[in-house]
Amino acid sequence: MCDLDEGSNEDSMGRDSVKRISSKCMKCKESPALLIIRVGDAFCRNCFKEYFVHKFRAMLGKNRLVFPGEKVLLAVSGGPSSSSLLFQVQEGLSHKASKKLRFVPGIVHIEEGAACGKTLEERTKIVADLKSIFSTSGFPFVIVYLEEVFSLPSSVLQSIFSLPTEKDDLYKDAVAGFMQSCHTSVKKNLCHETVAQETTLTEDHTHASLLSTHAHANETSISAFRGKFPFSPEQTEAVKKLFASMKTLTAKEEMLQTLRKHLILYTARIKGYSKVMMGDSCTRLAVKLLANICLGRGAFLAMDTGFSDPRHGDITIIRPMREYSAKEIAFYNKLFGVPSVFTAGLNTKAPEKASIQHLTESFIVKLQADFPSTVSTIYRTSEKLNPRYSQTPADDKGTETCLLCSCVLGIELRDEASAFCAISISEELSQSKKPEGGQVSSSTMEECCAENKMETLESSGCSCQSRERRNTTPDFWSLLCYSCKLVVKDMTSLDLLPEYILEEANRRQRRTQIKREIQEYLLTSEDDADTAP
Amino acid sequence: MPVLCSRCEIKKAHLKRPKTGHSLCKECFFWVFEEEVHHSIVSAKLFNRGETVGIGASGGKDSTVLAHVMKVLNERYDYGLNLILLSVDEGITGYRDDSLETVKRNQEQYELPLKIVSYEELYGWTMDTIVKQVGLKNNCTFCGVFRRQALDRGAMMLEVDKICTGHNADDVAETVLMNFLRGDIARLRRCTAISTGSEGAIPRCKPLKYAYEKEIVLYAYFKKLDYFSTECIYSPNAYRGHARSFLKDLESIRPSSIIDVIHSGENLSVKEEVRMPIQGNCARCGYISSQKLCKACVLLEGLNRGLPKLGIGKHHKLQDKLLKSQPLTEEEEKKFKMISF
Ligand SMILES: [Zn+2]
Ligand SMILES: [Zn+2]
Ligand SMILES: [Zn+2]
Ligand SMILES: [Zn+2]
Ligand SMILES: [Zn+2]
């Protein structure tokens, strides 16, 4: 139906003109060109390196989020992009670098073989390869196994908010503090707080799981060493069971990503890192952006894919590789011998339509082949999106966040005239009114048009209002965002979730219950207790 | 044992709802489908009692079901609306004839007044004559732009207060995806709105915004509604085509995807500092336009001047000349005269 086309503008997506290979590098105009990144951009080896390195510095410089002396955890999967990230940091810290990077890096790798059906031998082999790469870097590193989610404490789901008010000032202070500390050398008390936590590079260096040996004092030891692995065979089984209980690959992929995030956060916290760097490339982010739209994560797009993600409060996730295309990275890695390790993921051998994430990836790849500006257009679109932390009180009083992905729950549109409400009504109308037990499959989404009064058009009233909702225990669903609900809906049993998630869910449910019971005695809501005159 | 309807739990289920996967009997499906549209109408406050509402009727499944459901709900819930079927005759030989026949039959079946406005009446050109001048490849630009205005102009003629169209959830989700892929932030922000503003043009709304295309087909099928398949005879643009097949694949993986995409679209938040094109009105016809002349008027101007490419190519610099009906330079004319394929 062409009448749906609101004046299509195909010019903007036209194919790039045919590449012309000039024999000389466009930058130095001397050396022969080796590669073409974009149309017209032919580089020689040296100029490409300079361009690549500069981009990394510029990205960090522009955003000024990483303080000098700050401990930064690099999340390295072993793939080309995160391996390239590691290499950039290595180069940037080496004495050869003209302007040395000034943060203190460490590496974490989350080993997910258990979810992907790998044997222990295969896993050991990959881990050995990774360890040898990590060792060469000289940075402290830790391999965390997916099994370790079964020994995580529920506190990992509790964000500790400490958002700086004036980012810029803090940054300047930190730089000044760092400079001073360098001159006066040992006097750490002169430095800014974040600098004071500085540790030496070699201190943490160990080949075994750091989680198990250096567990935080008030956390229970995450797991006992059992020979080579910091987990038990029972835990491997539990991981397998959890993933087998998920009916769709789409949900499995989401769950894996969530658990991985929790492990990274926990590692960062107990090791005293305040930033985590992820290696997402521009290409990867374009796929993620579109996939997240399809997964109903529209409200959190900017946070899920932006340069920085402050939702976890004390730990900020940053993505310094976000302006490199996968192609650039591949070129760089090849030219400069950056080692990477291939690890088959959940969907590696799956058919295209096996999951939404997988479908989206192949869709983008195909579209990119037809319209070479696809990835960059999507990337630019994402830059125009609002991360929306300003609209929500970023503190630990009263702000409810999603149990699984920690996004702020109040953001999503849930009023009557929304997709959120529309789908709950469809679910509700399609089944008999008889209340069913707390089964996963029979969930109806909560709190859509509960409090709203129906007006105009002399309506008979919203059907959702008929529901009896007083004094019902706040259920598991109300703790999740729209998208995470979809994930959990695809599970056959909630009981297989790791303990820390269930425990935290219980804690939150109890809290909500208590809050409801004392509601009538509260004069101000907790949220505005501070701001009230 | 036959599957029982999950709603009444008495009758045998006739169908599995594409939207939720529930098995329902025919009667329960009708009821649920209609209630959902009712909910959309009431919750978004689409209409007010006493208003005259033009239903954009193409004879296709969406608008046929819309007309039927609007009629049903107007009576069931006593909306107090004055409903009119509004149809556009583009003047495409053989294409509209059948669908207009369908609309005429609908008029009788639903006892709703029908008004057909023709392109000839509105623009002085039929699509057939346009195709003759611009060729097949470019005419979708014309029929899209002209059709949207045609509905408005027809509505104004009839003193209609509001127009509702048969856009369904699939259409909305598809548009979200397409605008996202094209980086069209302004449209991305607007396209999920269930109703659009009233500046200059007549307010429009989409009561079927949350209705799945598949359910619309099922509804029409079980209700034995008379409709004509109105897939545009000209292929949709490449990007919409990609977005559409992608959405179909998504739906096959996770049926809620269509609503999920709309949910995402509704919740996208655009940075304050991103400048949105200022919406003004066309100096010639009054239709909403970001330029002095709206796209339809530029297209018409091009047709009348014998420069069919005018509306397709870039014409920002020529706006003033066009507005004042000044002649173009020879060089400018050359640019817009030839249609190259
Ligand atoms: Zn060069
Ligand atoms: Zn969530
Ligand atoms: Zn029934
Ligand atoms: Zn057309
Ligand atoms: Zn106009």
Automatic annotation (TrEMBL), chain A:
Species of provenance: Erpetoichthys calabaricus
One Pfam family named in its UniProt record: CTU2
Q: Name one GO molecular function term.
A: sulfurtransferase activity
Biological process, per Gene Ontology: protein urmylation; tRNA wobble position uridine thiolation
- Quick one: which pathway? tRNA modification; 5-methoxycarbonylmethyl-2-thiouridine-tRNA biosynthesis
Q: What is its main location?
A: cytoplasm
Physiological role: Plays a central role in 2-thiolation of mcm(5)S(2)U at tRNA wobble positions of tRNA(Lys), tRNA(Glu) and tRNA(Gln). May act by forming a heterodimer with CTU1/ATPBD3 that ligates sulfur from thiocarboxylated URM1 onto the uridine of tRNAs at wobble position.
SUPFAM superfamilies associated with the record: Adenine nucleotide alpha hydrolases-like
- Is this entry keyworded tRNA processing? yes
Name this polypeptide is given = Cytoplasmic tRNA 2-thiolation protein 2
Question: Record's Gene3D superfamilies?
Answer: HUPs
Assigned protein family: Belongs to the CTU2/NCS2 family.
Cellular component terms, GO, for this chain's entry?
A: cytosol
What are the subcellular locations of this protein?
Cytoplasm
Q: Which domain of life is it from?
A: Eukaryota
Which UniProt keywords are present, listed alphabetically? Cytoplasm, tRNA processing
From TrEMBL, chain B:
The GO cellular component terms are:
cytosolic tRNA wobble base thiouridylase complex; mitochondrion
Give the EC number(s) listed in the UniProt record: 2.7.7.-
Query: Which keywords annotate this record?
Result: ATP-binding, Cytoplasm, Nucleotide-binding, RNA-binding, Transferase, tRNA processing, tRNA-binding
Annotated ATP binding lies at G56, A57, S58, D62, V88, G166, D171
- By its UniProt entry, which Gene3D superfamilies does this protein fall under? HUPs
Read off the InterPro entries from this record.
CTU1-like_ATP-bd, CTU1_C, Ncs6/Tuc1/Ctu1, Rossmann-like_a/b/a_fold, TilS/TtcA_N, tRNA_thiolation_TtcA_Ctu1, UPF0021_CS
Q: Where is the tRNA(Ile)-lysidine/2-thiocytidine synthase N-terminal domain?
A: 53-231
Please indicate which superkingdom the organism of origin belongs to: Eukaryota
Coiled-coil zones: none
State where the protein is found.
Cytoplasm
Cytoplasmic tRNA 2-thiolation protein 1 C-terminal domain mapped to chain residues: 280-310
GO molecular function (one): ATP binding
Q: Which HAMAP family match?
A: CTU1
* Record's function text: Plays a central role in 2-thiolation of mcm(5)S(2)U at tRNA wobble positions of tRNA(Lys), tRNA(Glu) and tRNA(Gln). Directly binds tRNAs and probably acts by catalyzing adenylation of tRNAs, an intermediate required for 2-thiolation. It is unclear whether it acts as a sulfurtransferase that transfers sulfur from thiocarboxylated URM1 onto the uridine of tRNAs at wobble position.
Record protein name field: Cytoplasmic tRNA 2-thiolation protein 1
